[in-house]
Amino acid sequence: MSKSGLFAHFKSIEQLHRELIKHIGSVFRSEVVSPALTVAEGLPRLEATIANWLTWASRPTALGGAPLLAGFFEFDDREGSVRDSLLEEGIRWCTHLRQLVTQAIAMDDFRQDLDAEQFVFELCGIYFSFHVSERFMRDSGSRGFATLAVEELIKRARRR
């Protein structure tokens, strides 16, 4: 499609960005979230979600790995509707992760005093490091490092 055809359909570059973000979020949920919903609740579902998430960034067909993450960095200091759309997707994802952690706590997979917010913060830090290591540094050991870091995070979260 030509540039004029894109603008005729989307009216603005911001609208195009918002629609792309919405589409990427939908694909992300179908490839990362939905398959994990077939796994038993609690820790097994959380682990399946994390595995799917790491795979999402590693897909050879994924130019740039995690396009929403790239958008987070590109639009972090800008105001506007594109940033708002990215923020909405980010909040949706973190909320989902917190729900999975809370579910694992409720099922006694994790200790009762676990701070789900802190767990998700650390988990996202692992993912961001993995993404940079995997996609930018092209470190062949990045998946192993990320897997080990997640295992250690889960070990700390388990009942004492």
UniProtKB/TrEMBL annotation:
InterPro entries: Tet_transcr_reg_TetR-rel_C_sf, TetR_C. The keyword DNA damage does not apply. SUPFAM superfamilies: Tetracyclin repressor-like, C-terminal domain. The keyword Isomerase does not apply. Keywords: Transcription, Transcription regulation. Pfam families: TetR_C_13 (PF16925). Residues 42-141 form the Tetracyclin repressor-like C-terminal domain. It comes from the Bacteria. This is Transcriptional regulator, TetR family. The lineage of its organism: Bacteria, Pseudomonadati, Acidobacteriota, Terriglobia, Terriglobales.
